[in-house]
Amino acid sequence: MKGIFKNKPRTPADVVRQTRELLVYVDSGAEPRETRREEKMDELYRNLREMKSILYGDSESEPVAEACAQLTQEFLREDTLRLVIHCLPKLKLEARKDATQIVANLQRQQVQSRLIASDYLEANFDLLDTLVAGYDDTEMALHYGAMLRECIRHQSVARYVLESEHVKKFFDYIQLPNFDIAADAAATFKELLTRHKSTVAEFLTKNYDWFFADYNSKLLQSTNYITRRQAIKLLGDILLDRSNSVVMMRYVSSKDNLMILMNLLRESSKSIQMEAFHVFKLFAANQNKPPGIISILVANRSKLLRLFADFKFDKEDEQFEADKAQVVREIAALEPQDRA
Fold this sequence. Notes:
The chain is mainly alpha-helical. The protein contains 20 helices and 2 strands. The relative contact order is 0.05.
């Protein structure tokens, strides 16, 4: 009779269901006995490791599509994702990392050719509020930030974050004194402003005035070198993207914007100078320059031409040299506006 009553191996759905029960237990904090609680927590940590192994595979096997689909369906069928996000602060560090990787992976899992995580999040947008607010918590910021970036892969999620008040918080998060958290927030901000082209173009068009006022004053004119360097690089990525051509034309028609860029060209940092040049060349290349822009360029022509004559970088770059020559020609050919 030996072996007849062996336990059936657990399915991926079984693992999720048991994990959900354990998370409910953790969330309730009801168990007064420390030993019992430790046992439950250890069981939860084992389950998280097992789910991660199903989704990512391990040293011995690749992930199996059917098992991943089962796990994903069960995870999102009920509020397991909500429980994981809510209980994350109560888990130990390694378990937080496992949970973060699980949530990240679920965003990419297709079930019958659908990204069902996107549907779930559309019905539970309040979870995004929790993830964004995670940047205020030093211990949780990197975990919630990694989850948030993966969720932003879904266009509807990115649109929700951009259209909420949360987007304004990133101007502060990017300048947090904790370098790792600030860098993580900057990575999320970049993802929000570059991944979904049509959504970004619509957002920038609708919110042009306040967004670029804050971008200029808080980021491009920040006293923090790293903030300025990241901001000018991202600005170039945004304005040089064809889907943002209308926004770009508006940006390069502003005298205030031009003055900020000219100051960045004079920075001692070569990397900031180079990124500033990529934006400045858009002002110079504009064939419909407003009179105010022409006046500033003409008034500063000799300084700009001297600056560009000394503009050298460690590595030879043919495209940069060609762009620089074109900018110099454009500025040299400008005529004062009041010329008879």
